[in-house]
Each structure stands twice: as C-alpha cells, then as structure tokens.
Design a protein that fits this description.
Radius of gyration: 34 Å
Strand content: 5-15%
Largest sheet: 6 strands, mixed
Structural class: alpha/beta
Order of helices and strands: HHHHHHHHHHHEEEHEEHEHHHEHEHEEHH
Number of strands: 10
C-alpha cells in the first residue's frame, strides 16, 4: 500500500468511528491517554519514595507512597473503564462498517463486483479479515496512547540525564521493520486469497443442502476433504515462508535495542556511584528503561497489528472507490418512458467479460417492437443470459447501446430504470422470508396480501398455498424455527410470482423461468404470460423477453431470435424460421424427434 492508501484507510475508519459513536470515540481516546500517563507516573512516584526514604523525610515519604498507591489504583480503574468503552465502541463500529459493506455491494449499478476476479478477491479477503477491520479504531487509539507514553517517559528520562533519550534511537530498527513485516503480511493475504476462496467454496459445498445429495451419491466426501487439505497446505506454505522472513527481521531489530538498554542502565549506575544521581534516579531509569524495551517492541507489534487492520480497511476503501466510480459513471440525463411506442433497440452491442478478450456477444443489432413477446433461443453458451443481463442494465455493453424508444439505458437513472423492469432469472435467489415477503419484495410499495395472491395466480403458483402450514405467513427455509423447505420447482414458482408483482413493466425478462418445471406446466404458464403480456402491451407497450430451451413453448412468441456463438444467427416468427430451414428449424426438429 502507498502512503496515500495508509492515510485514506486510517481516515475511513476514524470517520466510521466518529459516525458510529462520537462520544464513545472521544471517551476512548481520553481514557487510554489518562491510563498511560498514570502508568508512567508510577515510576516517578517510586523515585520520589525511594529518595524520601533515603533522606528520612516522613512527609515526602507519605506523599510519594500515596502517589504510588494512587497510580496503581488509577491505572487499574482506567484500564477496566477503557476496555469497556472500547468494547462498546467496537460493537457500534462493527454495525456501521457492516452496514457500509451492505450498501456498497447492494447499491452497485451493475453486478461487476460479483463477477470480476480482482474485485471478488478484495471482497472475499475483506470478509475473512472482518475482525481486523473492526479492531482498526481500537488499535489506532492504542497507537496514540503509545505515542503519549513515549513522550512522558522521554521527559522523565531526560530529567535524569539527556543522554538517556538516545535509548529511543535503538528502537528505530524495530519501528522501521514493522512496515516491512506488515507488507509481508499483506502479501501473504493477497497470495493466499485464491486458495482461501477455493477452500471456502469446498466448505460451503459440504454445508449446504443443495450439494448434499450428490456428495453422498458420488461418494465425494473424501475427495472434497483432500482438496480442502491441499488448499490449506498451499495457504500455510505461503504464510510460513513469509512469517519466517518477518520473524528474522523482528529478532534482529530487537537485538539492536538490547544493546542500548544495557548501556542506559550502566550509565545511570555509574552516575549514582559517582554521586551525580540518586538511588531513586537509578530505580527510575531501570524501571523506565525496562518499560521502554517493552514499549518499543510492543509499539512495533501494535504498529504491525494496526497496519494489518488498515490493510483490511484498505480493501473497504478499494470497494468504496469502486462504488463511487461506478456511480460517477452514471450521469442520468433522461427519465424512462412511461410507455413504449416504438420498442427496445440493441444497437451493435458487443460484450466482453472483464479481463478477457473473447466477446460473449458481438455486433448484436435487434429491435424488439413495443407490445411484443420475444423469445431468445440457442445452444448453451450462445450468450442468451448475458443478453438478458445487458437488457436489465446489470452488465454494461463493452460497445454499442441499448435504447428504450431511442433513449439509451446509459443515460437513465439506474433506480428509476429498474422500477420499470421485472425479471425472473435462471439462477434466482431463495429469499428465506415469510411467503408474503418472499413474493412481495418484487414490488415493495405494493406488497399487500391481495397483490401477492394475484401475483401467485399469474405465476401459476396459487396451488402452493393450501400445502403450506400458515399460508402466506409460512416461514421458508429449514434453518429457521418452523421453516418449511420447498422443492426446486416450488422455489422457481415463487421467483416467478415475485416477477409478476409488477403488473405493467416496460420490460419483463424471463430467463429460463420454468427450467425446474415439466414441459406441460411451462407450456401452460407461457400461454398465461403471453395473454397477460398482450393485455399489458395494450396499456403501456411493454415487451416480454423469454429465454427457454423448450422450442415447443417459444413458438407462441411474436418474434424468435436465434443466437449462435454470441451473434444473431436468425430472427423471425416461428413459422417463418421453420420455412427458412436454418439453425432454428434444425434445433426444433431435434427436440420434436426426442419428444416423439
């Protein structure tokens, strides 16, 4: 990390602490500062006590003794109070930082964050280093307290002999070594990020119900365990090499300080023997010099831990910059049309996945007329789902544009644009909420029970309710008390119902919406959607886009687009494409013969 990155990381967590709990932040700083000053004063009161005893001054002895006792009691009280204040601050800071992570990942205009390896590396590393992130502010405060302690100890030592200040110079190698060892820690985290992500994936496979059946059927437990061990051996090997280097650097830097410590004690002892210093001065120096040894080595450790926390905070800065850049790239200059008059145009759209040169879509030029139902078909990997995500604004075309009645999607406010869309994706989410919430979140302002029931009916899912113990109030997900698990087809029907909550979208995207359902059910559903789409089209000219592998279903579409290797191979009505006897006709005959 550069100096600017360290500065920005520290500024971010301090702003976070101030926003989360400004009084707690201020109180933590004051409490820890008072604690370290009292701890340093203990050695001074001890010096006064010994000197008073040496000259048999009863009043000074009593005062110094009270000072020693007060220092011990005060340090103990402030240590306990400070730990309580820091614990409360850490809890509130954790909430604030988690909220910020949710805001960043949830409000990105596109899904680039979740599908770009370099961004994923930062996000996954941040998730693993969350504890380091939450400890950033306590460690920065501790670093401040360490600096105050150094100044106070320097003042007392200079009072004995100015040459004792040189003791701090012997700690410079340890301090200089900390950024170096911190850099080694960060390098280890970066190098281990990919195998750590693979190990986490293996762990998730064994802990989720989705993979449980195949793990047992194919007897994969030993294979997954072996792969998990292999990934962790790689992680340990990476960290071991770097930790050995860091340990060697740390030992050498501390050996240099020991030389200075021995010299400081020898100097004061010689002064005391020669009558140029008191016995109290000798005790003060021995005590403080010992504290300086632990202080310098401890401060180096604190600095290293702080840098580890700032490395984690740097990942949040990275994601924050990514979010700001993504939002800055969006400069809305128009509002989505209230109704489509002409349709949706894809103008010479090409798309590359980030970090690759091979186009997933290339030169796609299409017009989806207002009010029509469009089916997109093609083999696996033809680019169908990518095209759907571009239409939804989840991917930005590498080149070209998507236009709604001539207005480019890039010129629209993402939130306003998406309010006019609805979608059911092939890899739909399983929101383990109450049924009314799982469906109702498809249109948050209008999630009444009546609206949810109508959406379930449009999705052909009304038959689910009688089989659920509490109807719309049923908790979904077996992980929760009273939660009910559903089959893949039932989850897909709820996802469809969620898409049906918005009754008049300008664009309804259905990406393999019935892949978990049988062909007859899908055919019946599509017949319903086609009828509903025509009614909606009469109101606002909305377009429905359907992606399906079952060509017997898509024949009811007004327009069929055939993709092949990221390009438009054919387009037209079902009958026209059959007469053309091209790729679509070939695929249709192959499916028809398999059904026969």
């Amino acid at each position: 990390m550069t100096r600017d990155n360290w500065r920005r990381s520290a500024a971010l967590v301090l702003r976070a602490a101030w926003s989360a709990d400004r009084w707690g932040t201020a109180l933590a700083c004051v409490t820890l500062a008072a604690q370290v000053v009292i701890q340093v004063l203990f050695a001074y009161w001890l010096k006064l006590l010994i000197d008073a005893i040496a000259v048999r001054d009863g009043g000074a002895t009593l005062l110094a003794a009270c000072g020693v006792v007060g220092s011990i009691a005060g340090a103990s009280i402030f240590a306990y109070w400070g730990s309580r204040v820091l614990a409360g601050l850490s809890g509130r800071l954790r909430y604030w930082l988690n909220l910020r992570i949710l805001e960043i990942s949830g409000n990105m205009p596109t899904i680039e964050l979740h599908e770009t390896p370099e961004h994923l590396t930062q996000l996954e590393a941040l998730r693993r280093q969350q504890y380091q992130l939450y400890q950033a502010v306590p460690r920065l405060i501790e670093l401040l307290a360490t600096a105050i302690r150094m100044v106070a100890m320097g003042v007392l030592l200079a009072g004995v002999h100015p040459a004792l200040l040189a003791l701090a110079l012997f700690g410079i190698p340890a301090l200089l070594a900390s950024p170096w060892t911190g850099g080694l820690f960060r390098a280890g985290q970066e190098r281990a990020a990919e195998p750590a992500r693979r190990a986490e994936h293996l762990l998730e496979l064994t802990a989720t119900a989705g993979a449980a059946k195949e793990i047992r059927l194919f007897r994969l437990a030993a294979e997954l365990r072996a792969r998990f061990h292999a990934e962790h051996r790689t992680i340990r090997r990476i960290h071991h090499r770097l930790q050995l280097r860091a340990a060697a650097i740390g030992v050498l830097s501390r050996c240099f300080f020991v030389i200075g410590y021995v010299g400081a004690v020898a100097l004061v002892v010689s002064l005391a023997v020669g009558g140029h210093a008191t016995i109290g001065d000798a005790v003060l120096t021995a005590t403080l010099a010992g504290q300086v040894l632990s202080l310098v080595t401890g401060s180096a450790e604190t600095l290293q831990l702080t840098m580890q926390s700032l490395v984690a905070a740097g990942r949040l800065v990275y994601l924050d910059d990514l979010s700001r850049s993504a939002h800055d790239d969006v400069t809305p200059t128009a509002e989505p049309p209230q109704a489509l008059k002409h349709g949706i145009r894809l103008k010479d759209v090409t798309y590359h996945y980030p970090g690759t040169d091979r186009p997933v879509l290339q030169g796609v030029d299409l017009l989806f007329p207002a009010g029509q139902t469009v089916a997109i078909v093609g083999d696996n990997g033809a680019g169908k789902s990518t095209l759907v995500k571009i239409l939804a604004g989840l991917y930005r075309p590498t080149s070209g544009a998507v236009l709604f009645d001539g207005v480019a999607v890039a010129d629209l406010d993402p939130a306003a644009f998406r309010r006019r869309l609805s979608a059911c994706f092939q890899d739909h989410a399983r929101f383990e909420f109450l049924v009314r919430e799982t469906v109702g979140i498809g249109d948050l302002p209008n999630r009444t029970d009546g609206a949810v029931e109508r959406a379930l009916n449009r999705a052909g899912a009304a038959g689910l309710l009688p089989g659920l113990p509490a109807g719309l109030g049923t908790q979904l997900g077996p992980r929760w008390p009273g939660g009910v698990d559903l089959s893949g087809g039932q989850w897909q029907k709820l996802s469809l119902a969620r898409a049906m909550m918005r009754q008049d979208p300008l664009l309804l995207l259905l990406d393999e919406p019935a892949s978990a359902l049988d062909a007859d059910t899908e055919h019946d559903l599509f017949r319903r959607w086609a009828a509903a789409s025509r009614q909606a089209a009469a109101r606002n000219g909305g377009v429905t886009v359907l992606v399906s592998h079952r060509l017997s279903t898509v024949r009811m579409a007004d327009l069929v687009v055939v993709l092949d290797q990221g390009q438009v191979a054919e387009m037209g009505t079902h009958d026209a494409l059959i007469r053309r006897d091209g790729l679509y006709a070939q695929l249709y005959r192959m499916q028809a013969s398999s059904y026969r």
